[in-house]
Recover the amino acids of this structure.
């Protein structure tokens, strides 16, 4: 069990007190009669020796503990000094580090936008990027301009809402994007510059462009497919009319062949002849 810490002055006083006791003991031993020296003196000397040995052991242990504590204190002081230096250095350079990180992020964003523009311009898929807040078109590729019958510069002067045939479609798309983050293959009609309508499937996704919340829109013209679908539906309607007519003809033929119809027809003929006789 570790001894409680003792102050050095107290340890010195303790040692002086023990030597004083030793001096008194030696004086008593010298002045004692022989028999007393051989009995009580030897016993007291033996006890004194034991006490001295125990005190020296305690002193040695305490000195070792004090040395260990001093070493630990020195280590803690050094670590504290190192931390203070590190904090001071970090504080001095935090502004420059933050500025460097911001510059790096902006540069990476600029490069990614340039890379996106390169890819989007090369693809035949019409691509638009519009701002969420007001629908202003921030980017469009050549394919999108051709789809709407406008140049790239003219299309950049428009707002996305101007392109919709049904304005409610944009509202529905924004709500779907807010819920799911993206929309795939949504069918709707857009308007060309000359006012003509055409069908597209639109796929939309949220995107940060020029440090603004925007919507990336990729379009696919399906007008021809819609025309073919409508033509097919018309054929089905016409075939249904023909089928219904043929069905009615067949039903009439079946009715004519029944005995009941034959009897009615014979009765009609009889009545007609009777009228002629009159």
């Amino acid at each position: 069990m570790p001894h409680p810490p003792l102050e050095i002055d107290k340890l010195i006083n303790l040692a002086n007190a023990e030597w004083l006791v030793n001096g008194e003991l030696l004086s008593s031993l010298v002045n004692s009669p022989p028999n007393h020296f051989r009995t009580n003196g030897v016993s007291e000397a033996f006890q004194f020796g034991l006490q001295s040995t125990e005190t020296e052991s305690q002193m040695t242990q305490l000195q070792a503990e004090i040395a260990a504590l001093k070493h630990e204190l020195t280590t803690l002081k050094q670590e504290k000094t190192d931390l203070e230096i590190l904090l001071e250095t970090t504080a001095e350079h935090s502004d420059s580090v933050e500025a460097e990180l911001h510059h790096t992020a902006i540069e990476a964003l600029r490069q990614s936008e340039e890379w996106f523009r390169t890819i989007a311009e090369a693809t035949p898929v019409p691509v638009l990027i519009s701002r969420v807040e007001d629908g202003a078109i921030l980017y469009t590729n050549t394919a999108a301009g051709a789809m709407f019958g406008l140049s790239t510069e003219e299309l950049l002067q428009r707002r996305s809402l101007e392109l919709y045939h049904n304005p409610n479609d944009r509202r529905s798309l924004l709500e779907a994007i807010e819920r799911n983050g993206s929309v795939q293959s949504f069918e709707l009609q857009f308007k060309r510059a000359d006012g003509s309508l055409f069908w597209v499937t639109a796929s939309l996704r949220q995107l940060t462009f020029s440090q603004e919340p925007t919507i990336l829109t990729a379009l696919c013209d399906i007008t021809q497919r819609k025309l073919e679908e409508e033509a097919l539906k018309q054929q089905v309607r016409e075939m249904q009319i023909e089928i219904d007519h043929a069905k009615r003809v067949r039903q009439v033929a079946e009715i004519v062949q029944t005995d009941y119809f034959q009897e009615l027809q014979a009765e009609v003929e009889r009545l007609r002849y009777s009228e002629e006789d009159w």
User: Anything to note?
Assistant: Residues 1-39 have pLDDT under 50 and may be disordered. The first helix runs from residue 8 to 31. The radius of gyration is 54 Å. Residues 224-262 form one domain.
